[in-house]
Amino acid sequence: MGIAGATIVFVLGWWISFFAVLPIGVKGQWEDDSTVPGTEEGAPKQPMLLKKALWATIGAVVITAAAAVVVPLLLAEQP
Asked: Where is the chain membrane-spanning (predicted)?
């Protein structure tokens, strides 16, 4: 797998990982009656996006490493 393929796998893996971790630990404003006027009461109080982006990056690195090992094995010519 070349650099272009690895980049594509990393980007796709990052977005998949990000959407997987996005709902983890989110609490809405309605859960403790701290709704800010002018906002939706279902909006998250603390979305923790930086922390989730870090976890998505770790997940994408793992996915890319796994693909870098598996893809060459699948593409190897059989005698």
From this structure: 7-26, 53-76
